[in-house]
Design brief:
Elements lengths: L4 E7 L5 H12 L4 E3 L8 E8 L6 H5 L3 E9 L1 E3 L8 E4 L7 H9 L3 E5 L8 E2 L2 E2 H6 L9 E14 L2 E8 L5 H12 L3 E11 L2 E2 L4 E2 H6 L3 H5 L2 E2 L1 H9 L1
Parallel strand pairs: 1-14, 3-12
Antiparallel strand pairs: 1-3, 1-15, 2-3, 4-11, 4-12, 5-6, 7-10, 8-9, 10-11, 12-13
């Protein structure tokens, strides 16, 4: 049975976005399942799955602005720019005030160019960068125009700084942390990330991984699926 619509899932840490797509496809015997924006295995939070004919609006949904909460750790760089990677450099954190940090954040506001990390799904000549990175290769990447609508500090506990950020499609939060660390001069990497919102879709109506696993049939899942008219209405809100 094919169902057309959108399913919101609260992705757990340690799972890939593809893991959840594959689970839903296999468990409920769906022919077409896609997702609207990859979350790294370390990241948690809102993953939008598109089912059936909803796959035709996948790009449309991916273009929506995203809201994340995250934590960075100053003083260490890693090869993946997050806590899943190997530490490549450690430097002392200089004296830093919250006000001074906010000024640095402000340099990364509005439109600016961001270089995708090597550990990413961006493809060069058809090969994902992460495959090259795992082979120990690093190649030049073309910077991409991204946008930060707003960001703020939510917790100040050096060397850990927690923040919330509203950004465009294609934005790498771990690269944002890396770039800020470079600006300060001590390095930094992402230690925690959760997607809270994408467009008008939030975690409020998302299924947890445990709840998703507990469902037995397509009928059990049906009440959690947003129909195409419901999706259209939500996007207009």
């Amino acid at each position: 049975m094919e169902i057309d619509g959108v399913l919101l899932i609260d992705k757990p840490q340690g799972k890939t976005s593809h893991d959840l797509v594959d689970f839903v496809r296999r468990k409920f015997n769906f022919k077409k399942v896609g997702h609207c924006g990859t979350l790294d295995p370390m990241a948690t939070g809102l993953l939008i799955l598109v089912l059936g004919k909803a796959t035709k609006i996948q790009d449309l949904l991916m273009n929506e602005e995203k809201v994340y909460s995250g934590t960075m750790k100053l003083g260490q760089n890693t090869d993946s720019q997050d806590a899943d990677g190997q530490i490549t450099e450690e430097r002392p954190v200089p004296p830093l005030t919250q006000e001074g940090f906010v000024k640095i954040m402000q340099e990364f506001s509005g439109d600016f160019y961001q270089t995708p990390p090597m550990y990413s799904a961006v493809k060069i000549d058809g090969v994902p960068l992460y495959k090259l990175a795992r082979a120990g290769k690093e190649i030049p990447r073309e910077p991409r125009l991204v946008h930060i609508f707003r960001h703020k500090i939510t917790q100040w506990n050096l060397p850990q700084i927690s923040f919330e950020i509203v950004c465009s499609k294609g934005f790498y939060v771990r690269t944002y942390c890396y770039d800020i660390g470079q600006k300060i001069g001590c390095g930094a990497h992402l230690t925690q990330l959760a997607r809270l919102k994408s467009g008008n879709f939030t975690l409020n109506h998302a299924l947890t991984w445990d709840n998703l696993q507990a469902l037995k049939t397509v009928d059990d899942l049906r009440s959690s699926i947003l129909s195409l008219p419901e999706v259209s209405q939500m996007r207009r809100q």
